[in-house]
Write a structure and sequence with these properties.
The chain has 13 helices and five strands. The protein is mainly alpha-helical and 322 residues long. Strands 1-2-3 form a three-stranded antiparallel sheet, with no helix packed on it. The protein has a two-stranded antiparallel ribbon with strand order 4-5. Helix 2 packs parallel to helix 6 and helix 4 crosses helix 5. The longest helix is centred in the last third of the chain and has 30 residues. The chain is globular and about 55 Å long. The chain starts with a strand and ends with a strand. The relative contact order is 0.14.
């Protein structure tokens, strides 16, 4: 009968030694081989919860909050049969931003070249802090953003007369497209071994460019909406439910990034994924602004207005196209 003796250690794993008392072996080599049979097994302790499970639950909760946050706005547009109150810049920039986000996430997950270049530049923590739930979220977001954009043109909803993208936002949109093209050309021309060597200009820099474009778009896309709410002194047409869900998702995103980096005992996982960190912080900042506008600055219920009254005032100020 084998007896299993456990010897605890200071690490999160314990070493286990198997001995066979009273067992006779034919040769000395067999006895020495069994004596050296030491292996390591993970041991869960009651004092410390399974942090991997916590990270997984956090990730799922974040994805659910952020994913569900894309539904209140198109539902509100459908219910009102109008896109008035929602700026065109918001869904337009969202489509480009989440398309770049999805490309960036997919390459970190499935491109051997990008993953090897990431490991070269982050030797202490060679595993990207990107998960499949990030990719699923990005794909879902692209579809819902296209849906909201289509509600301005294809559903027969009321919209502001002369609706178009402002020149500053249009310039930023084209600049984002051109910047990724320029970085790609630099890598192709000046990169070592065609951009495969991560010590110089490499294809991972193009992926980072996609991520930084998404970060810039996340910052820019909210500004026209904040300004429109200020001019109208109302948040009607802008779904506060999506703001609240987005705020919770942003908090959970930051917590997951911190937790994943702590599990690896290396905080370069945060600096190695600045897009994920920036998205959470920027989203939370603007969400707080929208919450203040909706619940404190422009509380329509206190002014005695209802949605239809505000719609009529907007029609008079801006005009509409049926």
């Amino acid at each position: 009968m084998a007896i299993l003796n456990l010897y605890t250690s200071s690490s999160s794993q314990t070493k286990s030694r198997i001995t066979f008392p009273g067992k006779r072996f034919k040769t000395i080599d067999q006895r020495e081989e069994i004596r050296r049979c030491v292996f390591t097994v993970p041991v869960a302790t009651d004092e410390m919860p399974d942090e991997n499970v916590i990270s997984f639950v956090n990730a799922i909760s974040r994805v659910l909050c952020w994913s569900v946050s894309f539904y209140p706005q198109p539902i509100l547009n459908w219910r009102r049969k109008s896109t008035i109150g929602l700026t065109l810049e918001y869904p337009t920039l969202n489509v480009l931003g989440f398309l770049y986000y999805t490309i960036s996430t997919a390459t970190f997950l499935y491109s051997p070249l990008i993953r090897s270049q990431y490991a070269y530049r982050n030797p202490i923590s060679p595993e990207p802090t990107v998960r499949f739930n990030d990719l699923a979220f990005g794909l879902h977001a692209v579809v819902l953003c296209i849906l909201v954009f289509s509600q301005f043109w294809c559903w027969g909803y009321r919209r502001e007369r002369g609706l178009r993208i402002s020149r500053p936002v249009g310039g930023i949109f084209m600049g984002c497209l051109m910047s990724t093209v320029v970085v790609s050309l630099i890598v192709a021309v000046r990169g070592i071994d065609g951009g495969r060597d991560a010590s110089g200009w490499a294809w991972i820099d193009v992926v980072y460019a996609f991520g930084y474009v998404k970060l810039l778009i996340t910052f820019v896309k909210y500004i026209p909406q904040v300004w429109a709410n200020y001019k109208r002194k109302s948040t009607t047409g802008w779904s506060i439910e999506q703001v609240l869900l987005d705020f919770v998702g942003g908090i959970l995103s930051i917590l997951q990034l911190i937790l994943d980096s702590s599990l690896q005992n290396d905080w370069s996982g945060i600096t190695g994924n600045p897009v994920k960190l920036g998205l959470g912080n920027i989203s939370c900042f603007f969400d707080i602004m929208f919450i203040v506008q909706h619940y404190w600055l422009y509380r329509d219920s206190e002014k005695g207005y209802i949605d239809d009254d505000i719609d009529r005032r907007i029609h008079e100020d801006y005009g509409t196209v049926d």
